[in-house]
């Protein structure tokens, strides 16, 4: 197909789309706001599911190298109450099965290294899209430059510039905020935290609060201190998020009566604290098909991270869209066919994600989470 295709956003979904397009001999340019591939930390760990993320990696010809990098032992899930009593502790699947974990940075590097050199144009922040007719759009960048494309794929996340052209929907605050921190060199410096977390993820839940620890590669553990609070909780408390001591003191007040072994996740981490309010798009989120534009991943269906589906669906979106384009003679009809499949499945996943966060950060937690896990495993 002789068309000029652009992907906005070099996350897992956008890069998967670019990789599969190139595997089919179709040219593509990826634009990303980061100054370089190593400009910022890519975050925590992801579990790649067999029917979604792994299926996308298979379509990209990257399943085998992914499995070599992944951590099957990271599938262990441990659920505690605020007294540190264990209610659930199980390993899901084994090597090559289930949903093995991989650090976001490693996954992104795997995808980037698979692309033709020069595919990603770094430091290109999209400011607006200008329709030129016939489905062609001019993409304007913050540096004053622009480029014209027959198809612009919005893979640019929660606050997508491309989505703003297609739909007026904006993400809403879920009522839950994560405050992220980390422990480094856990197997030597923080052995108590390593033992508490195990090889995968530990969730301690009680009364609209949660302490979540997640094993990453390289001896790191990321901690997510979850609270059902107002969006401006720190401002109301008079807390400067840059003041580690003040944040720590404010967080401790939110977890009265919790076991000391769990509170160590707040008091003993290596910082810094990062405030991450959880947003989600309305469900269902749809749009009228528009020639020359489409969305994938969080730009199309931002949802709670409790679903474990975000990156998996983004990558499946990217692979499906690329295969639809490769198998069609008409670019517009390929996009229409992709949207017909992607939109319904994203509604189902987003509904599940909303239910998952409601169960986890709930007045009766961890009861809802335990009931779900025991029923399904």
UniProtKB/TrEMBL annotation:
<keyword id="KW-0560">Oxidoreductase</keyword>
<comment type="subunit">
    <text>Monomer.</text>
</comment>
<feature type="domain" description="FAD-binding">
    <location>
        <begin position="293"/>
        <end position="326"/>
    </location>
</feature>
<keyword id="KW-0547">Nucleotide-binding</keyword>
<keyword id="KW-0274">FAD</keyword>
<keyword id="KW-0521">NADP</keyword>
<keyword id="KW-0503">Monooxygenase</keyword>
<dbReference type="InterPro" id="IPR043683">
    <property type="entry name" value="TetX_monooxygenase"/>
</dbReference>
<feature type="binding site">
    <location>
        <position position="40"/>
    </location>
    <ligand>
        <name>NADPH</name>
    </ligand>
</feature>
<keyword id="KW-0285">Flavoprotein</keyword>
<comment type="similarity">
    <text>Belongs to the aromatic-ring hydroxylase family. TetX subfamily.</text>
</comment>
<dbReference type="GO" id="GO:0005737">
    <property type="term" value="C:cytoplasm"/>
</dbReference>
<dbReference type="InterPro" id="IPR036188">
    <property type="entry name" value="FAD/NAD-bd_sf"/>
</dbReference>
<dbReference type="GO" id="GO:0046677">
    <property type="term" value="P:response to antibiotic"/>
</dbReference>
<feature type="domain" description="FAD-binding">
    <location>
        <begin position="4"/>
        <end position="189"/>
    </location>
</feature>
<protein>
    <recommendedName>
        <fullName>Flavin-dependent monooxygenase</fullName>
        <ecNumber>1.14.13.-</ecNumber>
    </recommendedName>
</protein>
<keyword id="KW-0963">Cytoplasm</keyword>
<feature type="binding site">
    <location>
        <position position="47"/>
    </location>
    <ligand>
        <name>FAD</name>
    </ligand>
</feature>
<dbReference type="InterPro" id="IPR002938">
    <property type="entry name" value="FAD-bd"/>
</dbReference>
<dbReference type="Pfam" id="PF01494">
    <property type="entry name" value="FAD_binding_3"/>
</dbReference>
<dbReference type="GO" id="GO:0071949">
    <property type="term" value="F:FAD binding"/>
</dbReference>
<comment type="function">
    <text>An FAD-requiring monooxygenase active on some tetracycline antibiotic derivatives, which leads to their inactivation. Hydroxylates carbon 11a of tetracycline and some analogs.</text>
</comment>
<feature type="binding site">
    <location>
        <position position="298"/>
    </location>
    <ligand>
        <name>FAD</name>
    </ligand>
</feature>
<dbReference type="GO" id="GO:0004497">
    <property type="term" value="F:monooxygenase activity"/>
</dbReference>
<feature type="binding site">
    <location>
        <position position="104"/>
    </location>
    <ligand>
        <name>FAD</name>
    </ligand>
</feature>
């Amino acid at each position: 197909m002789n068309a000029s295709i652009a992907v906005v956003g070099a996350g897992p979904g956008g890069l998967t789309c670019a990789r599969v397009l190139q595997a089919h001999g179709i040219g593509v340019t990826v634009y990303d706001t980061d100054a370089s591939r190593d400009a910022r930390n890519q975050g925590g760990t992801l579990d790649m599911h067999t029917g979604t993320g792994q299926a996308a990696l298979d379509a990209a010809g990257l399943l085998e190298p992914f499995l070599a990098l992944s951590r099957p032992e990271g599938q262990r899930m441990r659920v505690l109450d605020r007294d540190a009593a264990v209610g659930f502790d199980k390993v899901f699947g084994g090597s090559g099965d289930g949903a093995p974990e991989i650090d976001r940075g490693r996954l992104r590097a795997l995808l980037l290294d698979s692309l033709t050199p020069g595919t990603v144009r770094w430091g290109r922040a999209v400011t607006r899209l200008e329709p030129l007719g016939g489905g062609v759009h001019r993409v304007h960048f913050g540096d004053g430059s622009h480029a014209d494309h027959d198809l612009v794929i919005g893979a640019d996340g929660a606050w997508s510039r491309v989505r703003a052209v297609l739909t007026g929907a904006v993400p809403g605050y879920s009522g839950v905020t994560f405050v992220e921190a980390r422990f480094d060199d856990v197997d030597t410096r923080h052995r108590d935290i390593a033992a508490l977390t195990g090889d995968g993820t530990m969730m301690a839940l009680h009364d609209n609060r949660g302490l979540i620890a997640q094993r990453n590669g390289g001896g790191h553990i990321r901690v997510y201190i979850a609270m059902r609070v107002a969006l401006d909780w720190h401002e109301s408390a008079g807390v400067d998020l840059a003041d580690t001591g003040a944040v720590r003191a404010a967080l401790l007040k939110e977890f009265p009566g919790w076991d000391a072994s769990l509170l160590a996740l707040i008091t003993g981490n290596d910082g810094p604290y990062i405030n991450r309010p959880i947003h989600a798009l309305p469900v269902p989120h749809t749009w009228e098909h528009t020639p020359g534009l489409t969305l994938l991943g969080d730009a199309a269906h931002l949802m709670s991270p409790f679903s474990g589906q975000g990156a998996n669906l983004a990558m499946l979106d990217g692979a499906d869209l690329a295969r639809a384009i490769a198998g069609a003679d008409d670019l517009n009809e390929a996009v229409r066919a992709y949207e017909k499949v992607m939109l319904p499945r994203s509604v189902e996943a987003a509904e599940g994600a909303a239910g998952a966060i409601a169960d986890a950060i709930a007045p009766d937690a961890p009861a809802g989470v335990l009931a779900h896990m025991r029923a399904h495993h």
